[in-house]
Amino acid sequence: MPFIKEEFSEGEPQTSLPPADADLRISEVFESVQGEGVNIGTPSIFLRLALCNLRCSWCDTKYTWDWEQYKFEDEVRVISQKDLLRLMRERRSRNVVITGGEPLLQQRQLVAVLRNLAPEYTFEVETAGTIVPSDDMVELIKTWNVSPKLANSGNPLQARHRTLPLTRFAQLENAFFKFVIQAENDIHEVLDLVNEFHIPAARVLLMPEATDPAVLDKKSDWLAQLCIQHQFRLGYRLHVALWGNKRGV
Ligand code: SF4
Predict the structure, then answer these.
(1) One digit per residue, pLDDT tens: the chain, 249 residues?
(2) Mutation test residue for ligand 1: of 36, 149, 161, 166, the one with most atoms within 8 Å of CB
(3) Sequence-ordered strand ranges (E) for 6-140
(4) Whose CA is nearest to atom 3 of ligand 1?
(5) Domain 4-243 has CATH 3.20.20.70
(6) What is this structure's pTM?
(7) Cys bridge to 155: 51, 79, 160, 234, which one at CB 3.0-4.6 A?
(8) With the C-alpha atoms ordered 53, 240, 249, 176, is the resulting torsion angle positive or negative?
(9) For ligand 1, which residues put their CB under 6 angstroms from it?
(10) Which ligand 1 atom lies nearest to the CA of residue 52?
(11) Ligand 1 centroid to 85 CA: how many Å?
(12) Which amino acid residue places its CA nearest to atom 8 of ligand 1?
């Protein structure tokens, strides 16, 4: 049954994370190329975990958490760690993109799974930066793609702006901050966060909010100018350019 709504509301979820030996709630496992972030283009296994503690209005993976629009029973697979390891070892890629939903909601089980795959595999995590990563996770992860949500996501400030996790990620040199930009005005909020958490510009990416290639191109155009102005990186969405909003690619 869906446990996200009851146990992981917009408050402080760390205290109620499932134990290390629990089964995982996953949405899908597939192989593709990394479409975003600093490792763009890398052939990767995508491990998409179900459940999220945020509710972004423009979320393109609502099937991981929106149980008013989707049926939990249809979308979520409860899988043992052993079966998940077997699923992943069937694929050729050796870079694993751990995404969601919010994968850190299941970080205790993830540590156990990833330890079984290391050191042959490399791992990157996509997170909204609302949950403090454990030291064990930090040790295992090669790249953090942290995407703090702005007001344009529709989440209340107290849910999306979490001081402890953002402070921790800002300290990690392998954590890159990827901001989803809807309109040019969003830059003010980005600058406030960058200043508040002392994030070096070289670790900031501005990424257009887009689920179709035409919008992606249009927004990338003016976003590039903002990146030059503030010395941030321009983020892209390779999977949108190649496949639009298609799922599982
Ligand atoms: S944090 Fe990510 S998965 Fe969760 S609602 Fe926002 S965009 Fe969707």
Answers:
(1) 344 443 344 344 455 788 888 999 999 999 999 999 999 999 999 999 999 999 999 999 999 999 999 999 999 999 999 999 999 999 999 999 999 999 999 999 999 999 999 899 999 999 999 999 999 999 999 999 999 999 999 999 999 999 999 999 999 999 999 999 999 999 999 999 999 999 999 999 999 988 888 888 888 899 999 999 999 999 988 888 888 877 777
(2) 149
(3) 24-33, 43-49, 77-79, 95-99, 122-127
(4) 101
(5) yes
(6) 0.91
(7) 160
(8) negative
(9) 52, 54-56, 59, 61, 64, 100-102, 128
(10) 4
(11) 25
(12) 59
105 alpha carbon – ligand 1 mean position (Å)? 12
- Alpha-carbon torsion (52, 243, 184, 38), positive or negative: positive
d(CA 240, CA 32) in angstroms, rounded, equals: 13
In angstroms, rounded to a whole number, what is the distance separating the alpha carbons of residues 111 and 98? 12
Q: Is the peptide bond before 154 cis (omega within 30 degrees of 0)?
A: no
Cα separation of 41 and 225, whole Å? Answer: 23
* Pair of tokens at residue 137: 């996770």
Tell me which of 10, 47, 52, 166 to substitute to probe ligand 1's pocket, judged by most ligand atoms within 8 Å of the beta carbon: 52
Query: Between the CA atoms of 154, 78, 245 and 218, what dihedral angle is there, to the nearest 10 degrees?
Result: 40
Contacts of 22 (CB under 8 A, 6+ apart): 106, 108, 109
Q: How far apart, in whole angstroms, are the C-alpha atoms of residue 61 and residue 56?
A: 10
Q: In this structure, are residues 30 and 46 in contact, taking their beta carbons and an 8 Å threshold?
A: yes
